[in-house]
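#struct-help
A.M.: can someone run this one for me? Single chain, 265 residues.
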Amino acid sequence: MLIDSHAHLDFDKLSKNLPNIVENANYNKISSILSINTKLNEFNKLFNLIKNYKSIWCSVGEHPCNININNIPNKKDIISLINEKVIAIGETGLDLYYSSKNIQYQLESLKNHIDASIETNLPLIIHQRNSENELMNFLIQENKNNNLKVIMHCFTGSSEMLTKCLDNDFFISISGIITFKNSNDLKNIVCNIPINKLLIETDSPFLSPAPNRGKTNEPSNVYYTAKFLSNLFKIQFDNFCEQTTNNFYKLFTKAIKYESIIYES
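D.P.: on it. Structure tokens below:
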């Protein structure tokens, strides 16, 4: 069994074809999917999409790219949306790719997501782009007092960032980027992740791994990332699948373990 720990099933390229997406996932022995909320005002759309699928879960959060002076979700906003399907908070974090002008608002939003994670004991899904130092300094300070449950989504950071993550007992999630021909630096860094801190994801509909690069990504493709990583780590594929699946349920303790994804009307 494999688990896609980060997908966006409510994005149009997937939501309009969800029964086939789930069928493909089951065919590749993907037993669970965590679908990530990026806009609080669209949470109900995500929930209604997945609510009848056993073993498809969701998070609740506001993506940092959506944050500005007029949109800073507070802890109460986040917690109010939690229901039986929600097993995580996020995705949140810092994204300074386009501009750093909203960093103070992104940090405020991140703090509110952290507080929601602490109060609910749900893991925190972190997005990082062009913000390694700013993000890690903030998370490390918060972790000193709160022992945060963190997953670094779609990790592409430096070796220094990885060391800081592991020193703080954060989980690391790897996407299909690892299969790209130009990802040699990332491969060398990823090799240093302890297998018991590793998760895998698609970030679908984005970042489709080889051999499907350039096509719309979907959860079934996490199989190819797992195959690549098991070879990179020199671990038998079945053992790799078992370990990363166990890691998922160790972190996301609210998730119930099923053998496959089943629709129940």
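A.M.: thanks! The CA atoms of residues 179 and 210 lie 6 Å apart.
D.P.: also worth noting: The chain has one domain: 2-263.
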